[in-house]
Specification:
DUF2867; Alpha-D-Glucose-1,6-Bisphosphate, Chain A, domain 4; NAD(P)-bd_dom_sf; NAD(P)-bd_dom; 21% strand; alpha/beta; aldehyde dehydrogenase (NAD+) activity
């Protein structure tokens, strides 16, 4: 069948596409920024089209001549995610009905039993599932709790809280029961949902074989990863909002994602049925236990084989257009800091240093200033510097790099990064390499488009530090290349 994947630049979608291809399906991938997928290994095996789930004409074209559509879109990064997700789901439901699709597949969250009010996040996930079920198209809405896999936001939050805090002050919700599921098993159910008969039209709860509290999940993580036993001090007055502030400071997960995730953990999320077994058999080796899922995730991280991460999804505060390739592109004020230096290193040696920037290698200038700015960004609710990078030497288009996004990479000549920290404007950092006789020339441009008076004042306030930060970066990058 021809399967359309909406949300392939996200964590689950990016892993589902190769599974669908392996199952023998034709795959059409729809993305607002298709260029983000230029470097994925399955790029030449799919039909890639540009489209936005909020645009009716885009969805009409994207779903034409197809049988199955996977809805894996979530605007969780946005403060108005409830409204955006509702509008997008309604748009896709209408387009799917008009296109005559035989199946819609959706991945949402398990809703707790009883009449207790749902968190905004869970209520939105539930609403989107209902919109698709009411579309008139046969729909399967899979509902999962915490997904355990390298790179997932839930796993990263669990990992960093456990690894960085030998003594933890915890809220009451760490004693609520949760039924985690391995990402491998989620992909198993999603892939086979495409082949279900048309009379299957309902929600299914999916979950792994273990039911644990979040406290047990942290303690078992410590055992699997070889950490000493964690000491936990419960504090009943620690609200979800306060918990999210703590998660924002300690883990790479920003407050905008941490708050909805934690508000969902306030509920007990355990599957109420397992009817899916009557339609889709479990994997041949069975569903993975929690410890085994942790082992696989940690192995992927150690071997640097993490195909997708939560941070790979587009960050809404930093739109991808326009690009700062033309000095006059903005039609308004554009501040620049330009540095050039020559090195006796070859262009290839210089490029190795450029592409390895960030993460564990740092930013080659005034580490204290970068660290202070990163903490300030975290406190303001931004991403900070702790997202790191997937691989210490190789970058990919569209991936997160600390508080930047890789917007362009032209080996071995150009690396362009777009800022995703909290700023009164938009910013880019370009690192370019050119041959120069027997050596190479390094060119560095920091670009800033201010928004309003705050943006103007911001640039003037940081200008006195540019020689230390940007000048030091140029000197140290070329120095590192010389040392090779």
């Amino acid at each position: 069948m021809r399967c359309v994947v909406l949300g392939a630049t996200g964590y689950i979608g990016g892993r589902l596409v190769p599974e669908l291809l392996e199952a023998g399906h034709e795959v059409r991938v729809v993305a607002r920024s298709p260029e983000k997928l230029d470097e994925v290994p399955w790029r030449d095996e799919v039909e890639l089209v540009r489209g936005d789930v909020t645009d009716p004409s885009d969805m009409a074209a994207a779903l034409a001549d197809s049988q199955v559509a996977y809805y894996l879109v979530h605007a969780l990064h946005r403060s108005d995610f409830v409204r955006v997700d509702r509008a997008a789901a309604e748009n896709v439901a209408a387009a799917a009905r008009e296109a005559g699709l035989s199946r819609l597949v959706y991945l949402g969250g398990i809703t707790p039993a009883g009449d207790e009010p749902l968190s905004e996040h869970l209520a939105s996930r539930d609403e989107v599932g209902q919109i698709l079920l009411d579309s008139g198209v046969p729909t399967v809405a899979l509902q999962a709790a915490v997904i355990i896999g390298s790179g997932s936001a839930s796993f990263e939050m669990l990992r960093y809280l456990t690894e960085r805090l030998p003594v933890m002050v915890t809220p009451r919700w760490v004693h609520n029961r949760i039924q985690p599921i391995a990402v491998r098993d989620v992909l198993h159910y999603l892939t086979r949902a495409a082949e279900l008969p048309a009379d299957v039209h309902r929600r299914f709860d999916i979950g792994g074989p273990d039911v644990l509290t979040y406290l047990e999940m942290m303690r078992r993580y410590a055992v699997v990863s070889g950490l000493p036993r964690r000491v936990v001090l419960p504090v009943p007055v620690l609200t979800p909002w306060l918990s999210a502030q703590w998660v924002n400071l300690v883990t790479p997960v920003p407050r905008s994602i941490g708050i909805p995730l934690i508000e969902s953990l306030v509920h007990e999320v355990v599957r109420r049925e397992h009817d899916i077994d009557a339609y889709i058999a479990p994997p041949a080796e069975g569903l993975l236990h929690y410890e085994r899922a942790l082992e696989l995730a940690l192995t992927r991280i150690r071997d640097r084989e993490v195909p997708t991460r939560w941070s790979d999804a587009t960050w809404p505060a930093a739109p991808s257009d326009p690009l700062p390739t033309d000095p006059d592109w903005s039609g308004g004020t554009m501040y620049r800091d330009v540095r050039e230096r020559r090195t006796d290193a070859t262009p290839e040696q210089l490029w190795e240093v450029v592409e390895a920037i960030g993460g564990e290698h740092g930013w080659y200038s005034f580490p204290l200033a970068w660290s202070v700015r990163g903490w300030a960004d975290r406190i303001a609710g931004g991403v900070g510097l702790r997202r790191g990078r997937r691989d210490p030497h190789e970058l990919h288009l569209g991936e997160a790099l600390d508080w930047w996004r890789v917007e362009a990479i032209e080996r071995p000549h150009l690396l362009r990064l777009r800022a995703e920290m909290k700023l009164p404007g938009r910013a880019w950092l370009e690192l370019a390499v050119e041959p120069d006789g027997d050596g190479a020339r390094y060119r560095q441009r920091a670009l800033f488009e201010p928004h309003g008076l705050a943006g103007q004042l911001y640039w003037r306030a940081i200008s006195p530090f540019h020689d230390i930060v940007f000048g030091g970066m140029a000197r140290n990058i070329t120095g590192a290349a010389n040392a090779t």
